[in-house]
Specification:
Helices cover about 55% and strands about 10% of the residues. It has a five-stranded parallel β-sheet with strand order 2-1-3-4-5, with helices on both faces. The relative contact order is 0.10. Strand 1, helix 1 and strand 2 form a beta-alpha-beta unit. It folds into two domains: about 140 residues, Rossmann fold, CATH 3.40.50.2300; about 60 residues, Orthogonal Bundle (Arc Repressor Mutant, subunit A), CATH 1.10.10.10. It starts with a strand and ends with a helix. It has ten helices and five strands. Helix 7 packs across helix 9. The protein has about 210 residues and is α/β, with parallel strands linked by helices.
């Protein structure tokens, strides 16, 4: 397999490379520090698997995932995130990801996920499988947050976690005013008025 690791932290890329190098069927491991680099490298070489961080400095990992699946549908994508599985896993799987792992997963679980994906399977943890089963059972009562766009959803999570508009703008490389506009859209779609209401909703739905 040819594998591409896309993460903006070199220490994370080094750790992933060290773990993956133990896999006997891996021929090549390359690295990208952001979405633009990853897409450029995919344009120049065929990769069987992309390990993609969901939080990148130049664009959302979910945006990169959608571009990859549109242009290189045969490239499998394993999403990596520091966020709990319930926050982004469902969206990632809907967009074509072959699996979702949190960064606190053990090395053995990463190897298991790579092995399963290499065999054209999909990998999700047992806890995520249980969560998805509950979501399917409640599909007729779709959660309100499913109405949000990816960016609105991302900002909702950050607001619910107690971050200020300025902090969010700095993290996402957008202005405070733009964050405020997204916040207004979120509140309107969620039919909520205060940040505390938003935080309560996210806690009750296990999003934070």
């Amino acid at each position: 397999m040819n594998i591409l690791i896309c993460d903006d932290h070199k220490i994370v890329r080094d750790g992933l490379r060290q773990i993956l190098s133990q896999h006997e069927n891996i021929r090549l491991i390359n690295e990208a520090a952001n979405g633009f680099e990853a897409l450029s490298m995919l344009n120049n070489l065929t990769y069987n698997l992309l390990l993609l961080d969901i939080s990148l400095p130049d664009q959302s990992g979910l945006d990169v995932l959608q571009q990859v699946k549109k242009k290189w549908p045969k490239t499998n994508v394993l999403m990596l995130s520091m966020h709990p599985q319930e926050q982004y896993a469902i969206r990632a799987l809907k967009y074509g990801a072959s699996g979702y792992l949190t960064k606190d997963a053990a090395a053995e679980e990463l190897m298991l996920a790579v092995k399963k994906i290499a065999e054209n399977g999909k990998y999700i943890s047992e806890s995520l499988a249980d969560f998805l089963a509950v979501q399917l059972n409640n599909d007729s009562n779709q959660p309100t947050h499913e109405k949000l766009s990816d960016r609105e959803y991302e900002i909702m999570i950050k607001i619910a976690a107690g971050k200020s508009l300025k902090e969010i703008g700095k993290e996402l490389f957008i202005s405070d005013k733009t964050v405020s506009t997204y916040r207004s859209r979120v509140m309107e779609k969620m039919q909520l008025e205060k940040n505390t209401d938003l935080a309560r909703y996210c806690i009750e739905n296990k999003l934070i």
